[in-house]
Structure of Cytidine deaminase:
Amino acid sequence: MPATREFIEAAREASSHAYVPYSNFPVGAALVTKEGKVYQGCNIENASFGLSNCAERTAIFKAVSEEHLEFSSLYIYGETAAPISPCGACRQVISEFCDTDMPVYLLSKSREVKATTVGELLPYSFQELE
Ligand code: THU
C-alpha cells in the first residue's frame, strides 16, 4: 500500500504530543492495523534517560494492549531534514509484531518520504516463534 497523506499527517500530529524535555527531539508514529485503525505514538522521555520510550514502541504497545496484532503499515515522523530512521531497539520490537514485507514510511519535515520494509530495517532478525 503506498503512503497516504492521512497517515503521514497522523504521524506528524503524533509528534506534537511528544514529551521531550531532555532531547527536544519530537518523534511521531502512526501504526495502521489491517482493519484500517490508526494507533498514534510519540516519544516519552524520563529524567532517567534510559527509561525513555520511542514513538514507534509507544504506538505498538498501545495497539497490542488493545488486542490489535495485525498491522499493514507504519509511519515514522521526525522534525529532521532527512527522513528519520528507527533505533535498533524499535527495529526489534517492530519485527516482533509486523510482517517482514510490511511497508514502513520514514518521514521528515521536508515532506520527503522514504519507503522501506520491516525486513530491510532488520534483516536476519531474532525470532523465537518460528
Ligand atoms: N526516538 C524515537 O522516538 N524514535 C526514533 O526512531 C529515534 C529516536 C526518540 C528517543 C529520544 O526520545 C529522542 O528521539 C532522541 O533520541
About this structure: Residues 20, 23, 25, 27, 43, 45, 52, 54-56, 76, 84, 86-87, 90 surround tetrahydrodeoxyuridine (CB under 6 Å). Strands lie at 27-33, 38-42, 71-78, 103-107, 113-117. The chain has a mean pLDDT of 97.
